[in-house]
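hey so i finally got around to running the thing on that chain from the lab meeting. sorry it took forever, my laptop kept dying and i had to restart like 3 times. anyway pasting the input first so we r on the same page abt which one it is
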Amino acid sequence: MKNRTYRPKSVTSRSVRRPGFFPIRFAVWLFVLAGLTPRLTMASLRIYIVTDLEGASGVYQFAQTREPGHPLGEKAKEYLMGDIAAVVRGLRTAGVTDIVVLDGHGSQAFVPHLMEAGATYITGKPRPGPLTRLDESFDGLIQVGAHAMMGTPDGVLCHTQSSRSENRYWYNGVESGELAQCAAIAGCYGVPPIMVTGDEAACREARKFFGPECVTVAVKRGISREAAELYAFDDTRRALYEGAKRAVAAIPRCQPYRLSVPIQAKKEYLVFDGPSGAGRPVSKEGTIKDALKLLDF
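ok and heres what got predicted. didnt touch it at all, straight out
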């Protein structure tokens, strides 16, 4: 099947074959591919979802994402919860019963009373590890509400880690954003990226790093960093729901994203000498011995 991204009507996919997958799970996938008893055969699958706010439906300006308690931000959190709910419903329809959802937005973005049933949700700080509770028992990684890396011309709210200091990162000579960072951490456990949702630029970045099998669902198209062509919520939620179902079917074809270690790393960012002064560009280089320490650099 030809690779496509939802706009918001179509989707792509990609997946893994990890040590320990056979022989039991091989038999499970035979049932799945044959279209037999999906709920029964998928019951043992575990999916880990990492969320961010900037790539959610309806979000296109930093006023919606930066300031805790801002009215626009509180409404944007509701938009994100709607996207998450659609993905969780899609996974459950596909037979997945063990779903963990991590709040990956810096200032946290979950609205407890809007949590979709059928998943557990992790939010608040501090918490252990870069992706709390992720381990080798999970079968796939989904990134919901993702955004493109810093410097992407058509990337809505594009940044990498910090939109204020405009961080940029290179690993083994390849500039990488948050999509690759999360997937590389998951790759340490052999967990493949199976789905990415966000703007068109984030979906394009996902295909570049993870290949055509990773399901991508675009919920908007960037015009500039704070301007976008938005897609109707009814359309994006339907696309997210369908995309999640396809992502489950894509698991056998996806591969974990791994960085060769030791990782040769470079970081560029701005340092502000005063509250109103212009940022001063600085950079640093070094070696990261373990991808689990990626975000410590």
